[in-house]
Amino acid sequence: MRQAILSLEESKIREVANAGMGRSDVLPFWFGESDEVTPESVRAAGIASLQAGETFYAHNLGLPELRAAVASYTSRLHGDVLAERIGITSGGVNALIVAMQALIDAGDRVVVVTPVWPNLTAQPRILGADLHCEALEPDADGAWQLDLPRLLAAITRGTKLLVLNSPNNPTGWTLSKAEQESILTRCRETGTWILSDEVYERLYYRGDTASGAAPSFLDIAEPEDRLVVVQSFSKAFLMTGWRLGYLVMPPDMTPQVGKLLEFNTSCAPVFVQRGGLAALAQTESITPRVVTHLRRCRDTLVPLLQAHSGVHTSAAPGGMYAFLRIDGHGDSLQLAKRLVVEAGLGLAPGIAFAPESERWLRWCFASKDVARLGQGVERLANWLARHG
Ligand code: PMP
Prior knowledge:
Elements lengths: L2 H4 L5 H8 L7 E2 L11 H12 L12 H15 L7 E4 L2 H12 L5 E6 L4 H8 L3 E6 L1 E2 L5 E2 L2 H7 L4 E7 L11 H14 L2 E5 L29 E6 L12 E4 L5 H11 L5 H12 L1 H24 L4 E2 L8 E6 L5 H12 L1 E2 L1 E2 L10 E5 L6 H17 L1
Parallel strand pairs: 1-13, 3-4, 3-7, 7-8, 8-9
Antiparallel strand pairs: 2-10, 5-6, 9-10, 11-12, 12-15, 14-15
The structure holds 4'-deoxy-4'-aminopyridoxal-5'-phosphate.
């Protein structure tokens, strides 16, 4: 087998979850998904499609009506985007690997801003890229910041691809429009492609944009720019298990991605795409409710955590995670495993996302029952009282 595959690390989040397997007393906040089921009307659309016998292959790039609906949804948020720029994929993760297959040759320099969801560093490694990580840094309050001049300097003429995830999993860090403008200008100079993972764009709490969504590279780029935006139905529509996502790309790239999709998944299942269409038709009733609830979750959890001396975290502007550090506890994998076994609390270890977040823990606050967050903090507090 290829060395690139043999040397891939298994998920450290799974490693912690495995430590809690079979334990019904653990409150799990380790995985990045809401515990709320997909809205009924979206499920009904998937069922109706199956009942109607839509059990066949579809176009590689997705149903024309779904591509059109995604284009008009994206246009409402970010200005005109044509359906010829849209490719439907089997989840955001499939969109990411297909985009990278289209753009990266083995040995290409790829710059990734970290800490980040591990797939974004594993996927370039699978393709044999020469990976260069640019680290965010936490300030005294536990908010993570980008050193923009350092990132711009890392984007050299030989850099094929820049991978960014904003709003960021796990830190919540979110790029500003001004930062995006500087990055786009630099990438135009160097001929570098931008792969922007914006799956958390609707989960944005600052309220300083006209659309309410986080700043997007689509707001400022031209259709022909070397920009690929990755999106997902998972977060804003509570559809993680459906595996539905999409790419927004330059028009010339779309047919090439269509070819690649043929050799990956061939197409997203039709009944899943029907669910996506139903979700988009109701986005204004689904997504604002999801976001309002997540804001409530964040604003419940973060102050409870901050009330404990020795626990450092800040309210993230985007995403669905609190990222926290506990004084005196440096080994996040060991700490997360101990919290599972000794406190019944399931968190993700910071080391899963980058070496620089080794001392941190990620807490997914997308809990339907907000009171569960308080119960989790109580468990943490009791454990801290016992173990310092
Ligand atoms: N990007 C990021 C940053 C994520 O956190 C996730 C989900 N955890 C995804 C992409 C992919 O989501 P999905 O494959 O469910 O669409």
